[in-house]
Amino acid sequence: MGSQIRLLGLCLWMYLSSLSFIGAGAVYGREGEVVKGIVLVHGKTAIGRIDDDSVCATLDWWPPQKCDYGKCSWGHASLLNLDLNNKILLNAVKAFSPLKIRLGGTLQDKVMYGTEDCRQPCTPFVLNANEMFGFTQGCLPMYRWDELNSFFQKAGAKVVFGLNALAGKSMKSGSAVGPWNYTNAESLIRYTVRKKYTIHGWELGNELCGSGIGASVAADQYASDVAALRNIVENAYRGIEPKPLVIAPGGFFDSDWFKEFISKSGKSADVITHHIYNLGPGVDDHLTEKILDPSYLDGEANTFSSLKGILQSSSTSVKSWVGEAGGAYNSGHHLVSDAFVYSFWYLDQLGMSAVYDTRTYCRQSLIGGNYGLLNTSTFVPNPDYYSALLWHRLMGGRVLLTTFYGTKKIRTYAHCAKESVSKILYLYMVYVLYVKSDLILSYRKGSQY
């Protein structure tokens, strides 16, 4: 097809049984230049694991008035106003069977719950530039909580709910101090138990770790607050198995803060979550260049590696998740984060996170902003929805060591096959970012590495 350089994202699936390694050779060219590369996959020992339902997406609280850089991209995608009767939405979630859905985001620490013991009017968020994050306190009415749970049950979703961790705290120079007032949260949890709604996990707080976004909580205080949540869950779900996971802290990785929190929280938390927006602000006009720059993408490996090291050196069995990742923050970038090119970032993140034993990866968002898996207005799937579904259906839990010898513009990840009864391997995501269109691929079988 000529020597024109094209952009090609290639997924190569190779089914090979009972091998200790696989070698895949790639010959690719740029305007007549031919370069060879070899992929080696260790086929016997897993270097990490992911959950069977590792694909996760978020639903947020942002009202339609949420705008970034003069553009308002959220529409009616909030937990408070999303059209739960939309059949495309229902079928999009059902297709995963199940899809983890994390309910939360920036405004979650300003949400109160309209339970019977709530003494305040249950009113929605109101735009106010003088308030933290630009909105007043909002409220989740119990009739809406009922509607949401009805939808999740129909769709077969596994729900993680992010609780308000700032309740009862006072603000001092950006730091939230004092113990968590869990009265309203406990009321919501007990209401949920009485209604027999199934919750996969309760997460405490959003982006309050380290220096925080809007506010921060010290690691020792956060550990105490998570211990309180653990006690609430144990008591509210007494006699009920399995109990929901206790999840924290749901913020950006800070090595010192995470070390202290993990050491002081003991067995209170089941899952450690962190957030990723490694592409920078959504207003950046160079997002596509970043996405197609292997050296830029490689930078996030430091976060995954550091967190894995902290967890391995701790005495707990806590697992790590990416609790929220949208690539570009402030709602993403139209025609980039909702376009085909974003799958180069997204699929690379799924593969990279799995290598470092990250069990679940939550995409911001299922719907809303410019980075939704579904179009905010039409609910029609964006390209990354199909990338997520492909990963969910094909990638097994055992992650294999993969080495590529050649250009840095080819990226390889390998997992054992999902729902396999023998030693079947997938060679996954051979990313060829800039290649000649007449790419040649081959594989070879080996007995030892």
UniProtKB/TrEMBL annotation:
<feature type="signal peptide">
    <location>
        <begin position="1"/>
        <end position="29"/>
    </location>
</feature>
<dbReference type="InterPro" id="IPR017853">
    <property type="entry name" value="GH"/>
</dbReference>
<dbReference type="GO" id="GO:0005576">
    <property type="term" value="C:extracellular region"/>
</dbReference>
<dbReference type="Pfam" id="PF03662">
    <property type="entry name" value="Glyco_hydro_79n"/>
</dbReference>
<dbReference type="GO" id="GO:0009505">
    <property type="term" value="C:plant-type cell wall"/>
</dbReference>
<keyword id="KW-0378">Hydrolase</keyword>
<keyword id="KW-0325">Glycoprotein</keyword>
<comment type="similarity">
    <text>Belongs to the glycosyl hydrolase 79 family.</text>
</comment>
<dbReference type="InterPro" id="IPR005199">
    <property type="entry name" value="Glyco_hydro_79"/>
</dbReference>
<dbReference type="GO" id="GO:0005765">
    <property type="term" value="C:lysosomal membrane"/>
</dbReference>
<keyword id="KW-0732">Signal</keyword>
<protein>
    <submittedName>
        <fullName>Heparanase-like protein 3 isoform B</fullName>
    </submittedName>
</protein>
<keyword id="KW-0458">Lysosome</keyword>
<comment type="function">
    <text>Endoglycosidase which is a cell surface and extracellular matrix-degrading enzyme. Cleaves heparan sulfate proteoglycans (HSPGs) into heparan sulfate side chains and core proteoglycans.</text>
</comment>
<keyword id="KW-0472">Membrane</keyword>
<dbReference type="GO" id="GO:0004566">
    <property type="term" value="F:beta-glucuronidase activity"/>
</dbReference>
<keyword id="KW-0964">Secreted</keyword>
